[in-house]
Design brief:
- The complex is a heterodimer of chains A (110) and B (115).
- In chain A, 0% of the residues lie in helices and 57% in strands.
- Chain A is mainly β and 110 residues long.
- In chain A, strands 2, 4, 5, 9, 10 and 11 form a 6-stranded mixed beta sheet that branches. In chain A, strands 1-3-8-7-6 form a 5-stranded antiparallel beta sheet, with no helix packed on it.
- In chain A, a hairpin with a 2-residue loop joins strand 9 and strand 10.
- Chain B is an all-beta fold and 115 residues long.
- In chain B, strand 4 and strand 5 form a beta hairpin.
- Chain B is globular and about 40 Å long.
- The model of chain B has no long low-confidence stretch (mean pLDDT 90).
- Classes of the chains: A mainly beta (110), B mainly beta (115).
- At the A-B interface, strand 4, strand 5 and strand 10 of A face strand 4, strand 5 and strand 10 of B.
């Protein structure tokens, strides 16, 4: 199942700078997109979501952008903080079922 | 904040043995899910459960797998005869009927190791 792809397995960013995580999808039936954050030995925790009828959603330091024509979404974290170091999963929803990307490991350097 | 609770956190079993992974979803949630993540791979959907029946299942969820909500609070995943390839982190998740944004709340997972 390759419907949701995160092509960058890892990202290293300096504290205070912007982190940009990318996600591509193939299924045009997806109607909702979410980002989850996961620390080691913990379950994924919901971070932010966006409906397919919007192109941007912002929540504090986190902003998600959706480009439906390109079937692409991105998560911006600004400014990045050490506590943001985690694995970030992009997920897409169709018929109440989540499809996850493979995840991007973000490391925020002091 | 309410949490989804999973027990045990780690389970080691011999190939061919039955295992039961337990989950206590959020009390007022009505939709329940099991996902798994094999080491180094993506999180995969296994099954969704609503109104005491399976609403959807993936190809992974074959006859060796079953789910049950035996007492109105617990939600269990049973693997009848475990295989080596069942080794993974299993996540339970739930959501409420008003969570229109599909915001699933996940438990912290059960690490299953099949030897």
């Amino acid at each position: 199942d390759q419907q949701v792809k995160q092509n960058s397995p890892s990202l290293s960013v300096q504290e205070g700078r912007i982190s940009i995580l990318n996600c591509d999808y193939t299924n045009s039936m997806f109607d909702y997109f979410l980002w989850y954050k996961k620390y080691p030995a913990e379950g994924p925790t919901f971070l932010i979501s966006i409906s397919s009828i919007k192109d941007k959603n912002e929540d504090g330091r986190f902003t998600v952008f959706l480009n439906k024509s390109a079937k692409h979404l991105s998560l911006h974290i600004v400014p990045s903080q050490p506590g943001d170091s985690a694995v970030y999963f992009c997920a897409a929803v169709n018929d109440y079922k989540l499809s996850f990307g493979a995840g991007t490991t973000v490391t925020v350097r002091a | 904040e309410p949490e989804v609770t999973q027990t045990p956190s780690h389970q080691v079993t011999q190939m061919g043995q039955e295992v039961i992974l337990r989950c206590v979803p959020i009390s007022n949630h009505l939709y329940f899910y099991w996902y798994r993540q094999i080491l180094g791979q993506k999180v995969e959907f296994l099954v969704s459960f609503y109104n005491n029946e399976i609403s959807e299942k993936s190809e992974i969820f074959d006859d060796q797998f079953s789910v049950e909500r035996p007492d109105g609070s617990n939600f269990t995943l049973k693997i009848r005869s475990t295989k080596l390839e069942d080794s993974a982190m299993y996540f339970c998740a739930s959501r409420g009927i008003s969570d229109l944004n599909e915001k699933l709340l996940f438990g912290s997972g059960t690490q299953l190791s099949v030897l």
